[in-house]
Amino acid sequence: MEGDAVRYVAVGDSFTEGVGDELPDGSVRGWADVLAAGLAAALAEPVHYANLAVRGRLLTSIMTAQVDAALALSPAPTMITLNGGGNDMLRPGMQAPRLVPLIEAAVRRCLDAGVRPVLLCGPDPSQRLPFGRAIRARGDLLTAAVVELGARVDVTVVDTFHDAEIRDPGYWSPDRLHLNAAGHHRVAALILRGLGYPGPATTVDPVAVPAGGVLAEARYYAEHVRPWVMRRMRRRSSGDGRAGKYLDWIDVPTGG
Length: 256
Description:
The chain is an alpha/beta fold. 42% of the residues lie in helices and 12% in strands. The protein is globular.
């Protein structure tokens, strides 16, 4: 695993962990797994891959503890995707200007360590969420700040927040907060193109979303919104007791 081998590590929250793209055995895949496979296929050589993302994590934890762990991997990574802030946007009083210094500090640490950072702005979930207008406004501010940061320090930024296609309900899981398999594949494709590579070898079509109604909305609030509110009231997180899914390097073959 030495030499010129690509060693890619992902840090983040549920978006990067892959929640919403569940496999038959109950594990999650997600865009970062698809990206690693796409890199291996494009480079015609295995990619070494780690994923330290944990659902529910706030940006402070991602850009400190997770980045610490990523840079401590041996051998050292050659590329890292940095994303976070989605959970912060759901908290009262979130202010994008307070988050950007955390991201910039992590970017500069990666650059100082000789690791290529790729900044990723996550997709916009606001279209069908409660308080969606406020969430979109916060996301717009954070995305604009990340894009400006990327231009200022000359690192790649992939902005999926303003990707119009991925806002279609067919790319989202029933909780309306996480992408489904089609959405995760689209994110991977956008990142690969942003890095100058072909898209993933496989694609997943968006799902057909049935028309809503009063009963459907009531069921949605009962199954998805209420549990989230109850966790907040109890100061619990969906990621409590969890660790990243690949804490050390795994080999991703050229065949995916």
